[in-house]
Amino acid sequence: MADEVVLLDFWASVYGMRTRIALEEKKVKYDYREQDLVNKSALLLEMNPVHKKIPVLVHNGKPVCESLIQIEYIDETWPGENPLLPSDPYERAQAKFWADFIDKKMSVTAKRVWATKSEEQEASKELIEILKTLESELGEKHYFGGKTFGFVDIALIGFYSWFGVYEKYGNVSIESECSKLIAWAKRCLQRDSVTKTLPELEKLIALISERRKSLGLE
Amino acid sequence: MADEVVLLDFWASVYGMRTRIALEEKKVKYDYREQDLVNKSALLLEMNPVHKKIPVLVHNGKPVCESLIQIEYIDETWPGENPLLPSDPYERAQAKFWADFIDKKMSVTAKRVWATKSEEQEASKELIEILKTLESELGEKHYFGGKTFGFVDIALIGFYSWFGVYEKYGNVSIESECSKLIAWAKRCLQRDSVTKTLPELEKLIALISERRKSLGLE
Lengths: 218, 218
What we know:
CATH topology of the largest domain in chain A: Glutathione S-transferase Yfyf (Class Pi), Chain A, domain 2
Largest interface: A-B, 21 and 21 residues
Radius of gyration of chain A: 17 Å
Strand order of the largest sheet of chain A: 2-1-3-4
CATH class of the largest domain in chain A: Mainly Alpha
Order of helices and strands of chain A: EHEHEEHHHHHHHH
Largest sheet of chain A: 4 strands, mixed
Helix content of chain A: 55-70%
Strand content of chain A: 5-15%
Oligomer: homodimer
Number of strands of chain A: 4
Number of domains of chain A: 2
Distance between the termini of chain A: 52 Å
């Protein structure tokens, strides 16, 4: 049986970007289905009844939820090309630790950056702290896992497409504060899987400008 | 070289309990070091500089942080006895999804149950909803993974030792609301790894009573 792979996703989601990049790295063909997050589809509610969130990877009719779990699933299901997680148990644990750190820290803080008034700079400072912690973990390595693009890179790179949003509304220059991280992001952008996936900043800013209006911030 | 395994932990931690149970299941000998969470030890700060939290598993001098990552690491490092995660990628993804659900939902809500005034019952209702979702996933199975005790059971069973705390301060009967989950917990308690690990309710209540006093709730 040929694999039937469907991705329920939303173009601006940093989580969805992870799964799209992982599928591209593995050269898995899939059917992308953009979701309306205001009026959720019957399919989304059926496939992720617990959280009702995208992305959902549907493989031969069976759903896998949560983007980091999806990357691992993709790596285990299509193990041949471009391994995404290290094979050594200790290195795997470290990769999972940093991806978990990104999940625990980035989204909440990043949302506070663009969803609050620009005079409130606390969130921007915290965001820079988080990015500096990640930069310190990266060190002099080419990618987070060393020489090859992998799990932690995939977990983080989607946020890079949002950096311009954080800079605009958070009144901060990530480029000047975290130049090594920017250099890492540019290395990631040499990969087709990443350039294909990351959205344009203008589109994101248009989206966020609308959200801010609906929050009474513009 | 013989394995040197050290666990930095705190007796009442549901996260630490996970790692202790996983080590017991694998019959790994380890050096347990109780931590003072108010005055954190130099060793804890050195081994988990990012989050500064227990549990930390230190294997041959190298730290592994985050309890779910520790269980996976233990399963991969000592694969022989009692596999903790399923070998099938889809089942693995499902197990990780439910453990992640427990992490995202249980602690925050459970703390609201005991750390607020007893007249505020909203948290107790939410806790029952979460437990009913888990009960529904358990269904008629013996354990969450089917016939054998594993990852999701380990992720959840520590909370069972706290049920009496939630019942006392949340003014709720988990036993009458979630009888199948209680039956599952009693099955888990037939395992040495679990009985050895779960603390006595009286000790937990004494601890929480002190915390509530310091929060001005008693």
